[in-house]
Specification:
With 245 residues, this protein is of the alpha/beta class. 37% of the residues lie in helices and 17% in strands. The chain has 9 helices and 7 strands. The protein has a 7-stranded mixed β-sheet, with helices on both faces. α2 (67-75) links the parallel β1 and β2. 31% of the residues are buried.
């Protein structure tokens, strides 16, 4: 008589996620069933988008498990906020988390202004937004890509900064935070050298509620806090385009 093999980790993940696809569930999903490395990302299944009558104005690029998205929802109730994440399983976690929070808050109507989609923004950012659409972009604890040959894969570069400038409304803010000082200096240098951005003054930065939220609400930020690490913040304002000669 053969003994039944215990389910593998992959089978457990699939069973758990399938059980949490219902709209009526209000239990928050568990991260361990959604973890995935960026290089393991799969093809995105095709789905029909729902029409909306307002434009997204805030983007959290590389939103991870959605901590900042969830925290910003009640602080920016008039804004539509999108989280963009390359890992399919992590994206699915955030989507399930938002569904559960909406069900838990059905009386108050909270969390109706946030959503998450799977996207490779380093390749396709201008495909998602039109010119001057966004007022805020968050780049929170991006992959530092320590090796010099991998610096081209960093989320801040002259080319990508031009794309951020294209989708940002003049006066809008790019928020950056990291626990890697070298990456902080890299991001600051590249934004300061770009003609479409200027550094936000430290006094203004310290008074910004979004900066305060970004410091404490992301999962990576909480991990840095637990390890008593240092966080480096820099914000950059989108300048008006110069007039044509």
């Amino acid at each position: 008589m053969t003994s039944q093999q215990p389910p593998t980790k992959r089978q457990k993940r699939e069973e758990y996620r399938n059980a949490h696809k219902g709209e009526g569930l209000d239990e928050l999903p568990k991260k361990r069933f959604y973890r995935q490395r960026p290089e393991q990302s799969e093809e995105t299944p095709k789905s029909k988008p729902r029409p909306i009558d307002r434009e997204v104005t805030v983007a959290d690029i590389g939103c991870g498990f959605g901590g900042l998205l969830v925290a910003l929802a009640p602080k920016l109730p008039e804004e539509l906020i999108i989280g963009m994440e390359i890992r399919m399983q992590v994206t699915e976690f955030v989507q399930d988390r938002i569904k559960a929070l909406r069900n838990q808050s059905s009386a108050s109507g909270l969390y109706q202004n946030i959503a998450c989609l799977r996207a490779n923004t380093m390749k396709f950012l201008p495909n998602f937004f039109k010119k001057a659409q966004l007022t805020k972009i968050f780049l929170c604890f991006p992959d530092p890509h320590f090796k010099a040959r991998k610096h081209k894969a960093r989320i801040v570069s002259p080319t990508l900064n031009s794309e951020y400038a294209f989708v940002m409304k003049p006066g809008g803010i790019v928020y950056t935070i990291t626990d890697v000082e070298d990456l902080h200096k890299w991001m600051a240098q590249h934004f300061e050298e770009h003609p479409s951005f200027e550094r936000v003054r430290k006094e203004e930065e310290c008074e910004d509620e979004c900066v305060k939220t970004m410091m404490v609400e992301t999962e990576e930020g909480k991990k840095v806090e637990r390890n008593k690490g240092e966080k480096f913040v820099a914000c950059f304002r989108r300048l008006e385009d110069p007039p044509w000669p």
